[in-house]
Amino acid sequence: MATDLQQWFTGNVDVVVGRPTQPFSMLARPTTLHLAHTLPYGAILREDGVQFVIFSRSATGMRILLYRNVEDPDPYEIISLNPHDHRWGDVWTIFVPGLKAGQLYHIQADGPWAPEIGHRFDSKARLIDPYAKALAGDFLPPTDGIIRPPKCVVIDDEFDWQGTRPIRRELSETIIYEMHVKGFTRSRTSGVQFPGTYLGVIEKIPYLKSLGVTAVELMPVHEFPILDIYGQKPARPNYWGYDPLAFFAPHRGYAVSKEPGAQVREFKEMVRELHKAGIEVILDVVFNHTAEGNENGPILSFKGLENRVYYMLDNGGSRYKNYTGCGNTLNGNHPIVREMIFHCLRYWVHNYHIDGFRFDLASILSRDRAGNLVPNPPVVEAIAEDPLLADTKIIAEAWDAAGAYQVGTFATLCWPDTFDHCRWAEWNGRYRDDVRRFWRGDPGMVPAFATRLAGSSDLYQPGGRYPYHSINFITSHDGFTLNDLVSYNHKHNEANGEDNRDGENNNYSYNYGVEGPTWHKGIDLIRMRQIKNMLATLFLSQGVPMMLFGDECRRTQRGNNNAYCQDNSISWFNWKLVHRYRELWRFVQALIAFRKQEPTVRRKDFLTGLPVRPGGLPDVSWFNPMGGPVDWANAGRSLVCLLAAFPEREDPNRPNHHILMMFHAAPEPARFVIPAAARGLAWRLFIDTSRMSPNDIYPNLDGPPPPVDWSLTLPGRTLVCYVAPDVF
């Protein structure tokens, strides 16, 4: 053995190799280890081995820990990098010959333990590579005080995309379906072969295609913990996934195969098949915090490599700024972290063909390294201008947990000479609140409702943006489902184990007489009508509609408006509801089909009130129920909107349509008179939410004409829509 070791270290010796628990053969590796390229970061597979590249400014030593099996508690080999030969600036790098795809590894770093100034190096900590492309296994029970996190996996990114590419659909043409990969098919009612997985989503593509949505927005799919650091299932499991461990790695828990790295292949298969069906994939990304928590949290990755760079610190470095409500805040505008975010986004676009991103708590990215909100923050501007991301959709959740609320003002980068290159869209929280309040019957909501219906020009036009920069939604994963919005006056989060203290208290909901499910037919009819009212409003509004999965068939979370920890039937899609509420499903399908065919409701420019052509109707006209001008200060709870047909036809064989919408949110009936300006057109009923199916919607636009006296009485809480072909 001594002779073997002497032979191994003959010549240019540049590593120290050892094993912590038992001897091993040094002859297993045929050639010496040597210096490699300094970029890109992570574990890069080469023809004859693997290149490891790690950033750390303050580390004094670095090691790569190699494992054979996922369940192994300790490495079979440790490769030590010495600062003299394996460090270029702040980049540690080494090439290890003989390693292949599937190799399991951790990183270990030496450095100062000085929490009072922000250093948290721990030479015993097994660290997840910040650039790991996949993780395998889970937390193993710790021994000797050492946390054993999931292992990193060396990945071969080769994949047969079968000629598919990102779809590049215009944002204005997009219809988003927000969904949870696991929750979409996990229920036994889904009937899929692989429930709760990427492959399970593939099995339900025919459903998505028949519904008509053009994009799925997936709740977080980058790696997050399944078990706690003790290897135990936590009391409140992490279901939503907003607790990232590795930004470059798809979540292993949604893969069918347990082979290390299989999730990479299965995720790509899902994206490929969705693209074949014409459905884009948008990822909900969480570049605002990590699973390492605050100063009392574990050292799993970033803390143990360069804590002072990756996080916003406070109190001299001993504590973490918490603008996320999750214990720490990623230092997104530090150049190193900014670079990591860019690499990550590019990687998902180039290697996974992702079509867009929704940035969770995006206002965090508007904070400088001290935590102050700043105009035109570097990371936000750079994402918008990055050439590789030029075809992707970028959507901000324009607020954070520390009081920042930037809806309408996020990324105000659109100067007059660059209006055609405004990239950032936003989840429009104002749209959600105003539409909910209008249909609940709150007084004084007509002006705000009209503004939201018309594309929220008050929010987006001053900054040089357009209606399609408003992502309109009424419900999302965060809050009530649409069914629960009309079934509960109060949240019911008791199952979360926090004494119902968690979750939003102000939901603008109403139960119409009974809290929760009811057998009262009259109440259920009102609830169904209100669901249809809000869905019809969503798909008839200017802007980009987003609906929550299951809202098309009254999915319920039993009043839970913060189901982050409910990995059970509370959150899962019950597929029996599709049949039970098939009339609602048909209603939504018809709305989506109409929106896709009708450019009048998805204009790229804001409405002006001016004629669409000489002598023609204005692009938008507003009326009171009697057909007269609106007194906006005293508009009651009713409104009439007339949209003139978009002047340019997308299909020469199909006319665009004028659209007449009547909104009546008061509980009592009211008489409506069709305005004189709208008479003389060949109106046919499209929607009447007060009618029973199938007369609630006419997908072929062939409903009955208006009454001959141009007058009709709308029951309380009703939406009526007529359409007329544009003949010129």
UniProtKB/TrEMBL annotation:
GO molecular-function terms, A-Z: amylo-alpha-1,6-glucosidase activity
Pfam short name (any one): Alpha-amylase
GO biological process: glycogen catabolic process
Superkingdom in the source lineage: Bacteria
Annotated ranges, domain Glycosyl hydrolase family 13 catalytic: 178-595
Similarity annotation: Belongs to the glycosyl hydrolase 13 family.
Protein name: Glycogen debranching enzyme
Native species: Thermogutta terrifontis
